[in-house]
Amino acid sequence: MISIISAIGKNNEIGKKNELLWNLPADMKHFRETTSGHTVAMGQKTFESIGRPLPKRRNIILTKDISFNIKELEIVHSLEEFDDLLKKTSLGHSLTGEARPDEEVFIIGGAQIYKLFIEKADKLYITHVDAEFSDADAFFPVIDEKIWQKNKSEKYSKDILNKYDLEFVEYIKK
Ligand SMILES: NC(=O)c1ccc[n+]([C@@H]2O[C@H](COP(=O)([O-])OP(=O)(O)OC[C@H]3O[C@@H](n4cnc5c(N)ncnc54)[C@H](OP(=O)(O)O)[C@@H]3O)[C@@H](O)[C@H]2O)c1
């Protein structure tokens, strides 16, 4: 099963200058708890921004750069290679549904990679951040209400550590 996880502003903003737009420990906790023990896949820019493989998760990086190579990472150069890797290793679920359907593979960004996967995903975990950022330069694709329906939703009110109100929403395909 392919899931997408992201935190997005009111205009679908997700980043600026290859960084996040906010520091939200409540969302980091949600991200950690949701993805731990699973496979995470990300674009090379997001990997660069995080700066290290995420612990307790299988890390797959998408890049077109064939010279990009880091020991503890699995690297793929196209969607086809990504799918082949999942099939071959059988740890994840392939896009065509041939590998273990019980394993959840999380697409964790950024903008280019969300765009690449949104039509293939089965589920979206979206943290809606109640704020706008006019200087954002990276955006999540439009969540089409004809395709996606809210399955679960939980609100989190801003506090000392989290500057904005949040809503953790799970969307499933209609
Ligand atoms: N708010 C959130 O939840 C969230 C989550 C993640 C990231 N972000 C933000 O998103 C921004 C980064 O997004 P981005 O769009 O610039 O970068 P990105 O999606 O993280 O990575 C883009 C890179 O992925 C590789 N790529 C793209 N298409 C590919 C394909 N078809 N096959 C193989 N590789 C492919 C390319 O790497 P090469 O150039 O090496 O070929 C490309 O430069 C940052 O600001 C980050 O902080 C936000």
Automatic annotation (TrEMBL):
Keywords: NADP, One-carbon metabolism, Oxidoreductase. Its EC number is 1.5.1.3. GO terms for biological process: dihydrofolate metabolic process; folic acid metabolic process; one-carbon metabolic process; tetrahydrofolate biosynthetic process. GO terms for cellular component: cytosol. The keyword Protease does not apply. Pathway: Cofactor biosynthesis; tetrahydrofolate biosynthesis; 5,6,7,8-tetrahydrofolate from 7,8-dihydrofolate: step 1/1. Residues 1-173 form the DHFR domain. One of its GO terms (molecular function) is dihydrofolate reductase activity. InterPro entries: DHFR, DHFR-like_dom_sf, DHFR_dom. It comes from the Bacteria. It catalyses: (6S)-5,6,7,8-tetrahydrofolate + NADP(+) = 7,8-dihydrofolate + NADPH + H(+). PANTHER family: DIHYDROFOLATE REDUCTASE. Key enzyme in folate metabolism. Catalyzes an essential reaction for de novo glycine and purine synthesis, and for DNA precursor synthesis. Belongs to the dihydrofolate reductase family. This is Dihydrofolate reductase.
